[in-house]
Amino acid sequence: MKINFDTLMDGLNGCLDTEVLGSASLAAPLGKVKSLRMGEPPHEGCVWLADNDARRVAEALSDGSDENESGVHAAGGTKTHAVAVANDHEAAKLLLVSFETVVLVRGRAPYAKIRDAVEGVFERYDDWNEGLLRILGENANVQALIDESTPIFGNPLLLHDNNYTAVAASSEYRDDVRLIPFLDSGKLPFIMKNDKSRDAEDGPSGDVQRLLMGESPAIGVKLYKRGKLAYRLIAIEASKEMKQGDAALLNHLSGYVRICLGLVRDDDVGVFGISDIMAGAISGDTTNREYITQQLSGFGWSEDDEFVLYRIYPEIRERNGGNLKFFVNRIIELFDNKCVFEYDEGIVAVFNMRRCPGGEAWLDSTMLGFLRDNFLRAGRSELFSGFSKFAMCCVQAEISHEIGPKVNKYKQLHMFGEVIRQHLLDVCTSRLPASMVCAPGLQRLREFDEKHGTDFYNTVVVYLKNDFQQLKSAKELYVSRSTFLYRLNRVEKITGIDFRDIDDPWHYLLSIELLREGRGGD
Q1: Whole-angstrom Cα distance, residue 351 to residue 13?
Q2: 148-198, pLDDT tens digit by residue?
Q3: 430 burial class (0-12, 13-18, 19+ CB within 10 angstroms)?
Q4: Beta strands at 376-380 and 413-415: parallel, antiparallel or unpaired
Q5: How far apart are CA 441 and CA 498, in angstroms?
Q6: Would you call 215 exposed, middle or buried from its count of C-beta atoms within 10 A (0-12, 13-18, 19+)?
Q7: Which of 10, 281, 279 is nearest to 124 (CA)?
Q8: Which CATH class is domain 5-124?
Q9: How far apart are CA 460 and CA 28, in angstroms?
Q10: Which one, out of 216, 243, 304, 520, has a CA that is 20 to 30 A from the CA of 88?
Q11: How far is CA 341 from the centre of its chain?
């Protein structure tokens, strides 16, 4: 799961001696830990770890020799909204030119120790999130959610209804004298019942508010049902000082509590509606299949339904990237039975075909018109069934968008079926040149033809395409069968290929495609 900078530092300060350079109130949520490497432009939403090569990488970034994802040189004034962590003071100062926030680990701590510490923080909150998902999948017990979360906050948690009656409270603090007054609505301090709460400072959303529980500071989230206040989820400062990151964590927990209490609708608060469930399934943040099935079935979606997924991007990301919310709202207005949300610098749109009366052709046609009107491009997955395929079909749509222009640069909507061949060829040569992937002898045969003016390579192509049928191949080449057999005999001598010993010609057919693409060189 993603955490904010305050939560990250709270975890690191227990095991590392740190100093924050730059902004100490980074707003972008952090979801990945990556190593800072030469030639890899840093992007937002990550914690970038600088190793022993940090000074050289930092100098390259500060000199503007590397670009961020938007194509803007860091030295030109645009800083990446991410965190860099370094154990070298000079490298940290250089990284500050490119990063909004830099954490300097004092004492020259080893890189491995720093990485373990940072990953340990994320693992702790990932484990918590997995625990919450498990509880929802097993029994959807709100008391279990509260108890699972108490160690994360290090303070008591309390769920009140709108009459201040305690619905659930941290079992660990049940006998704590500081919590007892809040478990009985008749004993609640008068000042609490009449306290006018104010917005949390720098909180992640307007839902989180600062409260005063008697004399104890607290933060709370109001939970609504059909537009009316139904519950309050509260974290009370008792055992440790409450920090800014606790507001984001409480907001995250409130999403699970909403589900458990049956408060979430498609158009409800955006914490765990259908779009959030889908985003979790695609990103891998949500892995509990029973939970996903249970939640999506509540919106009328079944495992047996057929779905199609689009990945939509502005034609010029730097110019239109800030308008994604506008495009999301336009798609929502235009289509029924959809799930649409911003995701990884673009938009994901998933449609349930069972509930799409116009059918597949109408959907593609309408989507294409929308793309043209708004200067957007998109890739589309194949039709699929089963909630477990959302992530892979999102990859299908992304591949379609990325490779589609190679197949037809004028199209704005690219189907996965149209780019499969190109994708397979790209994968085949992603790590090795075609000369080391192709069947031995074919490239040598083509070079022989070029040198001697013969047509042996084309003879092999036709023979393989016709599934080793000699007469059919001879007719297609407009030669006699004896001439065709003579050519095959010469090919075998030139290349060493024994056509009588080829059980599966897939390698040769693939090699021919690679050579046709002009990938035969080193």
Answers
A1: 45
A2: 999 999 999 999 887 778 888 999 988 888 787 777 655 554 334 444 343
A3: exposed
A4: parallel
A5: 11
A6: exposed
A7: 10
A8: alpha beta
A9: 58
A10: 243
A11: 12
With a CB cutoff of 8 Å and minimum separation 6, the contacts of 174 are: 183
Q: Which fold has domain 139-260?
A: Beta-Lactamase (3.30.450)
Q: Which residues make beta-bridge pairs with 343? A: 346
Phi, psi of 271, deg, nearest 5: -85, -50
81 pLDDT band, cuts 50/70/90, is confident
3-class state of residue 273 by DSSP? coil
Which of 277, 278, 273, 253 lies closest to 263 in space, CA to CA?
273
Handedness of CA 50, 53, 54, 60 (dihedral sign): negative
Structure tokens at 114: 């720093």
- Residue 499 pLDDT greater than 50, yes or no: yes
DSSP secondary structure letters along 70-107:
TS-BGGGTPPEEEEEEES-HHHHHHHTTTEEEEEEETT
| Domain segments of the chain as ranges | 5-124, 139-260, 274-419, 434-516
Confidence grade of residue 265 (pLDDT, cut at 50, 70, 90)? very low
Tokens of 274: 């259908």
* Residue 492 CB-half CA count within 13 A: 11
CATH number for the domain running over 434-516: 1.10.10.2840
Judged on CB neighbours under 10 Å (0-12, 13-18, 19+), 516 is exposed
- Distance, C-alpha 229 to centroid of its chain: 33
Q: Is 450 exposed, middle or buried (0-12, 13-18, 19+ CB in 10 A)?
A: exposed
- Strands 216-225, 208-213: pairing kind: antiparallel
Q: Go through 247-277 and write b for each residue having 16 or more CB atoms within 10 A of its CB, e for each that does not.
A: bbbbbbbbbbbbbbbebbeeebbebbbbbbb
Q: In 3-state terms, what secondary structure has residue 157? A: strand
- Contact assessment for residue 85 and residue 68, using Cβ atoms and an 8 Å cutoff: no
Amino acid at 256: Y
Beta carbons within 10 angstroms of residue 115's beta carbon: 16
Q: DSSP letters of 132-167?
A: HHHHHHHT--HHHHHHHHHHHHTS-EEEEETTS-EE
Domain 274-419: CATH class, spelled out: alpha beta
